[in-house]
Amino acid sequence: MTVHQSPVRLEAALKVTGRAVYEAETPMAGMLHAALIQSPIAKGRLLGLDMEPVRGMPGFADVVSHAEAQALAPSPPLALVRESAIHFAGQPLGLVVAETLQEAEACARAVPLELSSEPAVTAMSQALDTAFAPDLAGRYPPSSQRGDAAAALAAAHLVVRNRYDTAVNNHHPMEPHSVVCAWEGDRVVVHTGTQAIFLTRRIVAHSFQIPMEQVRVVSRFMGGGFGCKGPLWLPWLMWAILASQRTGRPVRLELTRAQLFNLVGRRQETVQDLALGFDADGRLTAIDHQVLAQTATHGDYSDATATTARSLYGCANVTTGHLVVRTNEPLPAPMRAPGVAPGTFALESAMDEAAEALSIDPVELRVRNYADRDLDADKPWSSNGLLACYATAAEQFGWAGRPAPGKASDGRWRVGVGMASSVYPVHRQPCRVKVLIDADARLLVQCGTQDFGQGLYTAMGQLAADGLGIDMDQVRVELGDTDLPEGPFTGGSMVTASFAPAVEDAMADLRARLAELAVADEASPLAGADASDLIFAGGLVRSGSGNAAESLADLVARCAPEGLEAEGAATPPEAQPSSANGYGAVFVEVGVDPDLGEVRVRRCVAAFAAGRILNARMAHSQYVGGLTGGIGMALHEHVDTDKATGRIVGDNLADYLIPTHADMPEFDITMLDEDDPLLPSGIKGIGMLGSAGIQAAIANAVHDAVGRRVRRLPIRIEDVL
Ligand code: MOS
C-alpha cells in the first residue's frame, strides 16, 4: 500500500461528517415529488395517458408528458420529451408530481396506458442491414486508411485475426441522478448532479426560451458520474422543470437504481474484427480493426473504439472503421475510458497471441513496435513514456522471473500472468477562473466546473495556494454553479488539464497586482523594488535579489483592505503542433480455479506516465478506481436485454456484478515523473488511463494460466472451464 504525502481533500471533513449537501438533499419549502411512468414495451406509440382514475388519488398534483412538453422548444438531445413514439422498454412516458414520493409512485403506477405495439429490434444481429458509419463525437473520422493493410496482411509472415466481443456495461455511480428545481418568477434554479452545468443551463434556457441569465444550475458535490451524468439525463430533468413551472412549486425527481440501467446511458456493446500482420522479427506490418457497435433508434452515439489502433504502435499499413446498428435499447454514452477500454481489449489481446506465435516476450514485442511519432496525425508526440512504463512495471512485477505458461499453481488455483499497454488521449476545454484575496490573506478560488468526486476542490486549492506561497488551510474553493466563471465539462480526463493553466494565469495576475501595490507603497519594506523581482513564498512577499520582505497578510491588510481579485483563463489552441496521450503498462497475476471456472486477480502492478501529477494521493486513488472498473469490465459487468420483451434482465446491483473489496488485488502503482513542456501546466489527465489495458492483461493472464484464449468480455465461468 502506497502512502502519499500530498494534501488530503479540502472537502474530506464535509463529506465524512455528512455536511456536504448533495443536490438531491437541497431543502425547499412546499416541494412536490416526482415519479416517472415508464413504457412496458420496447417499440410502439403512446396513444394516450388516461389521467381520470389518477386525478382523485391522494396527493396528486400534475402530470407532464409529450403533450404538455410541446410547450418546450425542440432540441435534439431532448427529442424524446416531445415524442409519442416508444423506442425502448422503460422509456418515460410521463412524469407525475404529488405531495409525497409514495403518492407520486402510486399515481404513476395507476395511470392506464393506451399503447400500440410493434415488433422491436432487441439485438444487433437482428438489424445488421441498418448499420451505418457514426459520427465519433466530431473528434475523429469514423474510418481511416494509411498504406495498404490488405496487401500487407496478404504478405505478412504472421497474421493474427480474431473477433472480440464486449458486453453492455452500466456506469452506476453511488449517487443516482436527481433534480430539485424551483422557479422564482421567470428565473429557475436547478440543483442537479451533472458533469456539465453550463451545457445543462444552455439546454434549459433554449427549451424554455428564456435568457441564460434566468437559469442557474448548481452541482457542488456528486457521488460519481463516469460519463452517465452528461446530457442523457436532460429529458427527464426538463419534465421536472416543466412540472415545477406548471404547479408553481419546487419539484424533486430522483431516479431509482433500476432506472439507471436504461435512462442514463451505457457502454455500448461491440463486436470487433481485428487482424494484425507481422514480419518474422515481430514488427507490425498491418492492422485492420473494424468495429460494429450498438446505438439506439432515437439517437446516435458511438465510442471511438478503433482509434487507438491508428497510432499506439508504429505500423505503416492501418485500416480502421466503425459501424453502429440501431436497436430498441437505451442510447449508449461515454463510460470509463470510452472506446479505448474495449478497443485495447482487442488490440492488446491480439498482441499477446502474436507474441506467443512468434516466441517473442510480450513486452519485447511491444517495445519493438513502439511508435516514435503519431503516424495517424503525422505529428510528433508531446511526450510518450510508454517504454519507461513497460520497464518500470515489468521490474516491479518481476516479469523476467515469471514461471513458464501453465506451470504455476497455488493450491487449487492455476496461476498465470499477463500484461498490456494503456493509453488515453489528452483533451482540454476552455476554462475561466476567478480568485479573491481578503484582508486576512485568505484566498477564495471560483470556477464553474464540477467535481464528481475525483478531488477538484483539492487540486485547484493546491495550485492556487502554491501560486501565492500560502498554506492550503488559507484557501477555499467554490465549484459547480453557473453563477461562477465558466469551466469545462467534467469528463474525458480533461478537467485538471483545462483548469490548471487558468488557475496559474489567475495567480500570476493576482501576484502582479499585489507586487504593484507593494512596490508603490512607502509603508512597505518593498517600496521602490522591481515588481517583477518579488517572490511569494511561505506567507511572505520578498525581494528575489535582496533581503526586503513583508508578510502577505500585512501587505493585503494595508493596501487592499477591501480585498483584491484577479481572473485567469485558458483556451486550447485550434491546431495542436503535437499529439498528446497519457500512457501506461499494466501487469496482472490471476488465479483460475479449473474446476469452478472462477477467475481472481491476485496482483496488479502498473506504471503510468501522464504528465505532471498535482496530488499523488488523489492520483493513486484515481488509478485504483480506474483499474477496479477495468476488473469489473473484464470479469463482472454485463447488462443483458431479454430478446423477447426488450427489457433489461436483472436491473439491480445484486444481479449486475461489480468488483467488491474481496475482488480487488493488491495494487502496486508507479506514477513516473514526466515533464511535458509542450502542454499547458504540463498536465495530461489520468482519470480514464487506469480503466483501459487491464482487461486484456487479465485475459492474457487467463491464457497463461489455463491455455484458454477468451475473446469476449466479461470472461465467464464457461469460458475457462
Ligand atoms: Mo467520462 S467516460 O467522459 O465521465
Secondary structure: elements and pairs:
Elements (H helix, E strand, L loop, with lengths): L11 H5 L15 E7 L5 E6 L2 H4 L4 E6 L19 E2 L5 E7 L2 H10 L2 E5 L26 E3 L2 H6 L3 E9 L11 E7 L2 E6 L4 H12 L6 E4 L15 H14 L3 E4 L15 E9 L5 E13 L11 H4 L6 E10 L12 H19 L3 H7 L17 H12 L10 E3 L2 E13 L5 E7 L5 E4 L9 H13 L6 E4 L16 H26 L13 E4 L2 E4 L5 E3 H8 L4 E7 L10 E12 L6 E11 L6 H20 L4 E2 L6 E2 L16 E6 L22 H13 L5 E2 L3 H4 L1
Parallel strand pairs: 1-12, 8-30, 10-11, 14-15, 19-20, 26-29
Antiparallel strand pairs: 1-5, 2-4, 2-6, 3-5, 7-15, 8-13, 9-10, 9-12, 13-14, 16-17, 17-25, 18-19, 18-24, 21-22, 22-23, 25-26, 27-28
Helix pairs in contact: 8-15, 11-12, 14-15
Bound molecules: dioxothiomolybdenum(VI) ion.
Dioxothiomolybdenum(VI) ion binds next to loops.
Give descriptors for this structure.
25% helix; Aldehyde Oxidoreductase, domain 4; alpha+beta; 3 domains; 6-stranded mixed β-sheet; 721 residues; globular; 16 helices; Aldehyde Oxidoreductase, domain 3
